[in-house]
Amino acid sequence: MNRFIIAICALLTLIIQGCATAQPLANPRTMTFPPLTFQIPSAERVVLDCGMPVYLLRDSELPIINMTALVRTGSVYDPSAKSGLAGMVGTVMRSGGAGGMTPEAMDDELEFMASSVESGVGSDMGTVSLTALKKNFSRTLQIFYQVLLHPDFNSDRIEIARRQTIEYLRRQNDDPKEIAGREISRAIYAGHPLGEITTFSSANAITRGDLIAFHGRFYRLDNIILAVSGDFDRTALLKELNSTFKRQVDLPALDVPNIPQPDPHLQSEVIYGKKDVNQTVIRMGHSGLTKDSPDIYAIRLLDYILGGSFTSRLTTEIRTNQGLAYNVGSHFDIGRRFTGSFIAETETKAESTGKAINLMKKIIAGMTKDPVSDAELTSAREYMINSFMFGFTSPSSIVTQRARLEYYGYPAGYLEQYRDNIAKVTKADILAAARKHLHPDAFKLVVIGDAAKFDLPLATLGSVRELDLKLDIPKP
User: Fold this and answer.
1) Quick check: is 205 in a domain?
2) Domain-located, residue 302
3) Does residue 273 share a domain with residue 231?
4) What is the pLDDT of residue 391?
5) Burial label, 260 (beta-carbon count in 10 A; 0-12, 13-18, 19+)
6) Cα–Cα distance list, 309 to 100, 300, 314, 429 (Å)
7) Binning pLDDT at 50, 70 and 90, where does residue 8 land?
8) Do 240 and 312 touch, CB atoms closer than 8 A?
């Protein structure tokens, strides 16, 4: 028996060796593959009887329906003395009950149905979303409708939201990274609503009447776009939506204030916050560009090459070659409604603070001096084109993305032409975009750490403005 097993093993060895001799292993560096093909999923756009646009995408894989309402609002409309108002509206719309239904009763019923209704407000958009099993969609839709258009703003829940905000403000200076992120944004958007932050006084100044007035101003059917995906029957769904969202009458004219674009503030500034920590947090940047710029495709590739990948210039030099930091990168946040920003960031030991700052600036400035290499362009282009499909991972993300394109006023065919526009970018385009949109000499530089341990005085980088990180916490 043992001889038989040995003979079989020897035979298998000969077969494997023969196959290896006949077909040598392929070299992964020289292997070629056909180009990836990907058809962008589409969604149907219809308009309800009330005039509200709705994007639909049916998917019957699971008996679930998702819905999101995009509302033209945002914290940019907060009165300066009541910063934080929009965020509180977004929280208490859901947590404070709606349509006469108490918060507790709403929580219990949604939990019993395994449904969810959530709301929130960001800087330039408000959302209310729904997820429900198909069998519970109709009832969940009614709760969604009340939260969206008839929130009760329960006084007790307002106070809970206020206390949560104040508790966050008490802790806002505990994390050096949070301080740096907040202060670089304030510096870039100084004098603009995007640069406003919630304070103890503004949080305490907000009243229930403010929430009701803010909601009534923006949450109306002529200011909303819906996105629906999941296991629905199109005819039945549209009938139910038309029955639920009936045309609102006797409404005053829609009054959405015109918020100007932020001032670029292309002037250098050094901002220092003292924290007794061994690691320095560094953020530097300035205002960027909007989606309407013809340079957005070149900027996407520049992002990848400069600081947006593990093989980027910033990562290769500062992390790999110099060992100055574990995390380093940069990114252009391309503005959809308002001018975006460019921010580079890292954290390094206190004793290498100056070296890291100067090296980052040098690397960034290098993007404006010479064209990128052929290898960098090819790698960035292939990554951007091949990763494009991952933006369409679920029916919900697909249909919501379509609604967002309309919400922000993107041109027709933006998605369909995206990969071709990326493929057309040349080295000269990237160099021109870098020279136009990168200004290292005009960086707002935020440094949080212990200056006594730095390898060079911050004053050598420019005039220093020191942050007051002591909190003036009001007494209860």
Assistant:
1) yes
2) yes
3) no
4) 84
5) exposed
6) 51, 12, 9, 20
7) low
8) no
Structure tokens at 377: 């362009």
Comparing 28 with 363, which gets the higher pLDDT?
363
Establish if 62 belongs to a structural domain. yes
Residue 23 structure tokens? 């077909």
pLDDT tier for residue 476 given thresholds of 50, 70 and 90: low
Residue 17 has pLDDT above 70, yes or no: no
The candidate with the shortest Cα–Cα distance to 384, out of 288, 303, 290, is: 303
Confidence class of residue 23 from pLDDT cuts 50, 70 and 90? low
Residue 262 in this model has a pLDDT that exceeds 60: yes
Are residues 342 and 303 located together in one domain of the fold? yes
d(Cα 80, Cα 57) in Å, to the nearest integer?
40
3-state secondary structure 350-391: HHHHHHHHHHHHHHHHHCCCCCCCHHHHHHHHHHHHHCHHHH
Residues 175 and 306 in one domain: no
The reply to whether 238 and 278 lie within a common domain is no
In a domain, 398, yes or no: yes
Domain end point (choices 244, 279, 297) = 244
How far is 191 from 198, CA to CA, in rounded Å?
15
Picking from 196, 229, 244, the residue at the C-terminal end of a domain is: 244
Q: Both 187 and 288 in a single domain?
A: no
Query: How many domains does the chain divide into?
Result: 2
Within this chain, do residues 285 and 235 fall inside the same structural domain, yes or no? Answer: no
pLDDT of 27: 77
Tens of pLDDT, residue by residue over 367-409, are: 999 999 999 999 999 999 999 888 888 999 999 999 999 999 9
Of 177, 64, 55, 156, the closest CA to residue 103 belongs to 156
pLDDT score of 15 more than 60: no
Residues 219 and 273 in one domain: no
- Using the predicted structure, report yes or no on whether residue 28 has a pLDDT greater than 90: no
Average pLDDT of the chain, as a whole number: 93
- Two tokens at 3? 């001889």
H or E element at residue 270: strand 269-274
3-state secondary structure at position 102: coil
Q: What average pLDDT score do residues 259-288 get?
A: 95
Q: Look at residue 67 and give its three-state secondary structure.
A: strand
Encode burial over 383-410: b for 16+ CB neighbours within 10 A, e otherwise. bbbeebeeeeeebbbbbbbbbbbebbee
Mark whether 308 and 428 lie in a shared domain: yes
**Whole-angstrom Cα distance, residue 248 to residue 231?**
29
Here the CATH number for the domain that contains residue 141 is: 3.30.830.10
pTM for this structure? 0.89
SS3 assignment, position 317: helix
What residues make up the domain containing 308? Answer: 269-466
